[in-house]
Write a structure and sequence with these properties.
Order of helices and strands: HHHEEHHH
Number of helices: 6
Number of strands: 2
Shape: globular
Strand order of the largest sheet: 1-2
Strand content: under 5%
Largest sheet: 2 strands, antiparallel
Distance between the termini: 30 Å
Radius of gyration: 17 Å
């Protein structure tokens, strides 16, 4: 995937589309969410930054990664249902109450941030991202992609 930026973008788009279609074949259209597409795109970029240039290898690796994340999420949900798990609000140091939806959005938002950043990510940066996500969740934000976006924007403006 060398060459001018437009050729690289076209190749990345082909990789994304191929991996996306395979994920949908395996997991169904209910997993065709914006969050999963963002995860997939972030993984493709990360793999390319690591030096991988072969489109098929990029597509295979990204599809396996996303499918593993989806399967792990399903396994977690199935396990929680099997043991009768009931998510209950809990208190953070700041005294805010976060319900199950907020917790899931915060967890996914932080994971998206982590995927978007090159390795290694320092504990200071992860702590900053976590605090920013907590602040926005306390203000009522429940969209993981927006939580991630707010945190990464705050990190960029801090540097």
């Amino acid at each position: 995937m060398s060459g001018p930026p437009t050729r690289r973008c076209g190749a990345w788009a082909r990789v994304l589309d191929d991996a996306w279609e395979r994920m949908i074949e395996l997991h169904g259209p209910e997993e065709a969410t914006n969050a999963n597409r963002t995860r997939l795109a972030a993984r493709i970029v990360w793999l390319a930054q690591q030096g991988e240039r072969d489109e098929r290898t990029l597509s295979d690796a990204a599809a396996v990664y996303l499918c593993a994340l989806i399967a792990a999420g399903k396994l977690r949900r199935d396990t929680q249902e099997a043991v009768g798990f009931q998510a209950k609000p809990f208190r953070q140091d700041m005294g805010n109450v976060y319900d199950a939806q907020a917790l899931a959005a915060m967890e996914e938002g932080l994971a998206l941030c982590r995927e978007a950043l090159p390795d290694p990510v320092s504990s200071t940066v992860m702590s900053f991202l976590s605090r920013t996500i907590l602040d926005h969740a306390a203000q009522g934000e429940r969209n993981a992609v927006r939580l991630c976006s707010h945190a990464l924007d705050a990190l960029r403006s801090r540097r």
